[in-house]
Amino acid sequence: MGDAPPTFIVFLMLLCFVIFSVRKEHLIVPIIIAMCFLPGDISLKLGSLDFQAIRIMALAGLVRIYFSYGNTNLKLNSIDKLFIGYNVLGSITYVIASQNIFGAILNKSGGFIDSVILYIVFRYTIQSKESIKLIVKVFCICVILLLPFAIFEFYSATNLFSILGRSRISIRDEEIRAACTFSHSILFGSFAAALVPMLWADFMIEKKMFKMIALLGCIFFVYACSSSGPIIALAATVFFLVFFKWKNHSRMLAWGVLIAATLIHFVREKPIWQFLFVRISIKANSAGFHRYLLVDAAIKEFWHWWLLGYGDFGAQWHLKYWPWTHAPFTDMTNHYLLVGVRGGFFTMFLFIILCYKIIRIMGSFAIAHNDKNDQWLWWGFTVLMITHCISFLSVAYFGQITMLLYLTIAVSSFAYDESQRTNEIIEHISKIT
């Protein structure tokens, strides 16, 4: 984790100033700008405490919300409760399992701000469909602004965001892996892949040139990151966007995928995760075999981590199952397993239920609308969450991409509230008629 250069501090303070200056319905704008342009692992240090941009922006947003809304009571729906419950349970189990209890409490307190507080800021900011449209528009602009930086980095092996502290260039087998402001190229590519369905849906609603440029920019980001995971996630995204025409048959598709996966698992000599991570690999030099070993080790070591996880010890599976790599730690390149080894099986189970519920709610909301533009809007966010779930298999989220995940969850919570209000209106009309 790097120390913040002066330019980083100035940019961060400027965005915080914007948070307190803009109208409350535009509060989301500086946060999205920070998501795209401020490196997530660079921090301001205050004694032994680290304050990353995400943490400072979350706190600034919370203060602004308090003074803007006065009464900050938020009526929690099932999505909110699941998200907060999963975070609270994960924090408790992590602290209990840790050796350094005080350090674990500090770690999870910071994580609580990064996740729950930021999520609350998003929830208060997303008040209407106009808020959703604003989010998409700001992402379009940010992607277009990022595009020349990514092109320059990919073709010159020079990261212009060194001015903000992000100077490291990743090169694997003589292939440049662009990352822009992100900590790793695969995070950058996964971030871009996740934006594609949202931007494509927006383009289908209103066909404008700048929207197409933003969409093509995200596709280039996926290519420039030179990683298999984002490329596969993008391919899946395209499939689900094409499936829009048959979205009413989503349940049948889900059952078909489950049955196919089960058949592949039992017909082949190797398990399904070997097929997913080793056989389906775009780049010859990818870490697919490592991801296969991770899932294998997680299953073999299940009774060691299922209750509380490993806390601050971390999983030491590499020492037992692949010591030849001489790795200093087990690199958790799988977000589902990261949640599990940090918080135990029940925390991971809550997280999976949360993901399922989000996809189901937004998918149903898309199908329920009669207006095709509304169908595209909500189907785009449905596929966005599906893309997250696919990316979870190849990368553990941290830094700016977690902000996009929490934003997606907040949008789904808004969709849930809207669907409930619609159902209440229909029920009321049916009673009076």
Keywords:
mainly alpha; 3-stranded mixed sheet; globular; 433 residues; two-stranded antiparallel sheet
Can you describe what's shown?
The chain has 18 helices and 5 strands. With 433 residues, the chain is mainly α. It has one domain. The longest helix is centred in the C-terminal third of the chain and has 33 residues. It is globular. The model has no long low-confidence stretch (mean pLDDT 91).
Q: Any chance you could write out the topology, listing elements then pairs?
A:
Elements: E1 2-3, H1 6-21, H2 28-37, E2 42-46, E3 49-52, H3 53-69, H4 78-97, H5 101-125, H6 129-156, E4 170-172, E5 175-177, H7 185-205, H8 209-224, H9 228-242, H10 250-267, H11 272-279, H12 288-300, H13 302-305, H14 317-321, H15 335-343, H16 345-368, H17 372-391, H18 400-432
Parallel strand pairs: 1-2
Antiparallel strand pairs: 2-3, 4-5
